[in-house]
Design brief:
The chain is built from 11 helices and 15 strands. The longest helix has 16 residues. A hairpin with a 5-residue loop joins strand 1 and strand 2. By secondary structure, the protein is α/β, with parallel strands linked by helices. Helix 3 packs across helix 4 and helix 8 packs across helix 11. The strands form 3 sheets. Strands 6-7-8-3-9-10 form a 6-stranded mixed beta sheet, with helices on both faces. The protein has a 5-stranded antiparallel beta sheet with strand order 12-13-11-14-15, covered by helices on one side.
């Protein structure tokens, strides 16, 4: 995470933002949010929640019908040109000419931002190297894989060195290797001081990248905080202990009840307790079971996930939920 700037204004500031469509339907309804400079902000929401409409307003593609929004210190309506000069945008469905090469597209993008020939060529070379496309720079984009196109999208959004970068579901449809490569690049950009406003359908992506997460539903922000803060609102971690075959389950429950409050389990061979201290609870639990002569097969600390948070505050699950690794850790224990 990049260090916070001493600038007098946040990177993104939204106050009472509204966007109504025909029939009086409000896609965005009194939205308030603020993103400090140097932060990666994850913006999540179910379909129809107002997420896409909000982003389109912030990048000046759509005018609000109420409230205000400022990006990089500039009003998105009255100073839209200044906003555009200070932002980079990588949309999910970018319009890229498949007959042009990567280097041609980057040079053209540089020219559109007022760069002279040598400057545009130098910037194109620099960015191709940064996103790992140097060897493919001379190839037509129509021959690129999905991951390569997403990296080129990112490079094009960075040509003019924007202060704020908007990424719209940047890794949708990518394989795990390409996804991880893009994550590394986003972290690197943030380390260099770029503020990142990230919309994603992958909860693992938000947890891996975002300093803070905002969840929108019904056009308004319904939850916001660091991933850890949001998960702590759902509940404490739970310690699951799978007992060895033939173990005395009632005795195991009595032993573990001295470590933490018992939790009901559907599996007769498993005992669970609340684990407010997370993995630090494991040694005490193992010691209590060992003293009681109870054989253990495995121990797992299961923490609330962002999927749990999302379901709790929106009543639904995100389309990409479950696409990443489980938020649990299992340790084998000798019987």
């Amino acid at each position: 995470m990049a260090s916070r700037s001493s600038s007098s204004h946040p990177a993104v500031a939204v106050r009472g933002l509204e966007r109504a469509f025909k029939g009086g339907i409000k896609a965005v309804d009194g939205l308030d949010l603020e993103v400090p400079e140097g932060e990666i902000y994850g913006f999540l929401g179910p379909n129809g929640a107002g997420k896409t409409t909000t982003v389109r307003i912030l990048v000046t593609l759509l005018r609000p019908t109420g409230g205000e929004a400022r990006v990089a210190g500039h009003d998105v309506v009255s100073d839209a040109d200044a906003v555009r000069r200070n932002i980079g945008v990588a949309l999910q469905e970018a319009a890229i000419d498949p007959l042009m090469s990567g280097v041609e597209l980057l040079r053209m993008q540089g020219a559109l931002h007022g760069m002279r020939g040598s400057e545009a060529r130098g910037r194109a070379t620099e960015l191709l190297e940064r996103v790992g496309l140097t060897d493919a720079g001379g190839r037509r984009v129509g021959q690129y894989s999905g991951g390569m196109r997403r990296r080129l999208d990112l490079a094009m959004a960075l040509v003019h060195r924007p202060k704020v970068l908007f990424l719209d579901e940047p890794t949708t449809g990518l394989d795990p290797t390409s996804r991880n490569a893009l994550w590394r690049e986003v972290r690197g950009l943030n380390d260099d001081g770029t503020t990142v406003f990230l919309t994603t359908q992958y909860l693992e992506e938000a947890e891996q990248l975002a300093d803070r997460v905002g969840i929108i539903a019904g056009g308004s922000l319904v939850a916001e905080g660091t991933p850890a803060e949001l998960k702590s609102r759902v509940g404490e971690p739970t310690l699951h202990v799978d007992l060895a075959e033939g173990a005395d389950v009632p005795a195991a429950r009595r032993a573990l009840s001295t470590v933490g409050p018992l939790v009901d389990c559907a599996d007769d061979a498993r005992v669970a307790i609340r684990a407010a201290r997370g993995k630090a609870t494991v040694p005490d639990a193992i010691r209590a079971l060992d003293d009681a002569g109870i054989a253990v097969e495995s121990v797992e600390v299961v923490s609330p996930t962002l999927d749990d948070v999302f379901a709790a505050v929106t009543g639904s699950t995100l389309e990409g939920a479950g696409g990443g690794a489980a938020d649990g850790e299992t340790a084998g224990v000798g019987a």
